[in-house]
Amino acid sequence: QTVVTQEPSISVSPGGTVTLTCGLTSGSVSTHYSPSWYRQTPGQAPRTLIYSTNTRSSGVPDRFSASILGNKAALTITGAQADDESLYYCMLYMGNGISLFGGGTKLTVL
Amino acid sequence: EVQLVESGGGLVQPGGSLRLACVGSGFMFRSYWMSWVRQAPGKGLEWVANLKYDGGEEYYADSVKGRFTISRDNAKNSLFLQMDSLRPEDTAVYYCARWIQTYRDFDTWGQGTVVTVSS
């Protein structure tokens, strides 16, 4: 059974750059999986950040960018700010109508 | 403004049933695929089901297949999730989301409704 993998937690200093990754326990992530990224703060609904591998959703600042790095999807935040502290989820489209979320990465800015 | 509002959550005993509803506004509901995504307490997001804009295709996560049924009433801009044979592990916040088939992603989310399965 394929699982989508994410770092459980990552820290970044204010103003720094951080990359979160999204992989597969079996195989490599490519644009074929149409990776998307979502952000969720406690008690709130998720918000879409990135779709179709690297396209920012409306209103998302250009500090957020995404790509395929090696065999994983990646979300990069440049100039990290305190309010970037959140849970970040990636999702991959597996085909046949099936989507899988990663377990999420808790980003701490300190 | 595009908006999704869920309702119907509550406390139900194991083996029981519940029907969730989601009303969409601010967009042409009948033109979009729609979905349900859930989040168990303290856990991550889990895709549950997708439904084509005309109801002609539906897809389910293995964890709910055969127990849950997604449906819609485009005349009422409404999406539903009929949940039968509920288990404690179905306890979660259930989000309604708009699925963009072209890009394979969710672009709009509701605020969620809480389902608790417990005796």
Helices and strands, with pairings:
The complex is a heterodimer of chains A (110) and B (119).
Chain A: E1 4-6, E2 9-12, E3 18-24, E4 36-40, E5 47-51, E6 55-56, E7 64-69, E8 72-77, E9 86-95, E10 98-101, E11 105-109
Parallel strand pairs in A: 2-11
Antiparallel strand pairs in A: 1-3, 3-8, 4-5, 4-9, 5-6, 7-8, 9-10, 9-11
Chain B: E1 3-7, E2 10-12, E3 18-25, E4 33-39, E5 45-51, E6 58-60, E7 68-73, E8 78-83, E9 92-100, E10 105-109, E11 113-117
Protein model, in words:
The complex is a heterodimer of chains A (110) and B (119). Chain A has strands spanning 4-6, 9-12, 18-24, 36-40, 47-51, 55-56, 64-69, 72-77, 86-95, 98-101, 105-109. With 110 residues, chain A is mainly beta. In chain A, strands 2, 4, 5, 6, 9, 10 and 11 form a seven-stranded mixed β-sheet that branches. The N and C termini of chain A lie far apart (36 Å). The model of chain A has no long low-confidence stretch (mean pLDDT 96). Chain B has no helices and eleven strands. Chain B has strands at residues 3-7, 10-12, 18-25, 33-39, 45-51, 58-60, 68-73, 78-83, 92-100, 105-109, 113-117. Chain B is mainly beta and 119 residues long. The termini of chain B are far apart. The model of chain B has no long low-confidence stretch (mean pLDDT 97). The chains are: A mainly beta (110), B mainly beta (119).
Question: Main traits of this protein?
Answer:
heterodimer, A: 110 residues, seven-stranded mixed beta sheet, four-stranded antiparallel beta sheet, B: 119 residues, mainly beta, 11 strands, 54% strand
- Report the strand count of chain A: 11
> Residue share in helices of chain A?
under 10%
List the total number of helices of chain B: 0
Multimer state = heterodimer
How much helix, percentage-wise, in residues of chain B? under 10%
The most extensive interface between chains reads: A-B, 24 and 21 residues
- Detail the poorly predicted runs of chain A: none
General form of chain A: globular
- Rg from Cα of chain B: 13 Å
Number of DSSP strand runs of chain B: 11
Radius of gyration of chain A over alpha carbons?
13 Å
